[in-house]
């Protein structure tokens, strides 16, 4: 099995890479900073420096990974960018990076995987969205809107690629205990409800891909909480989510 993971040099992506390597699969990962990988125990891991916002970069990287391989079995896009803008201002640079990575990067990864898998008429593509993306209200954060777009983009590709035997799985996790999440919160995750550890997240994600699930939202408690909130009037939801963001920032 040949597996490629965009955004696989850290966090969920790297944990998924380690999982597939332990199964004896041929695994490649890419990211903007390959130096993030300091674990030398997996010498068979193929690492590439790639910017998912550049289509030529993604295509070139995937071509290099597949140069001596007959097919691409699994492509997972874990690349993502986050900046909080519900309870405070966001800079243009932060907004631009988040939109380009989360939306343009998603499309680029789908296109690269599609080109590789279409001729072989098989393959699994997965993308990491967010549980926040299942909510739709006027003043939701830019991050939430971008992740909602990821879910919609994945749904469009799922319909388009189904006739070619290619499955698309959208992963919408809640809070996962990664180094990045800890860094964003000064190592204090006490205000992150229903926190999922990396091992559990990897188990859920890999099973969803194997079972060719369309959309998997976890953990279950977060899923039902967000779905319940989404039933509220938009005006009330705006207030609740704004106060939540302020509370989480200790304002």
UniProtKB/TrEMBL annotation:
Gene3D superfamilies: NAD(P)-binding Rossmann-like Domain (3.40.50.720). Transmembrane segments: none annotated. Keywords: Oxidoreductase. InterPro entries: NAD(P)-bd_dom_sf, SDR_fam. The keyword Oxidoreductase applies. GO terms for molecular function: oxidoreductase activity. It holds the Pfam family adh_short. Belongs to the short-chain dehydrogenases/reductases (SDR) family. This is 3-oxoacyl-ACP reductase. It comes from Chryseobacterium pennae.
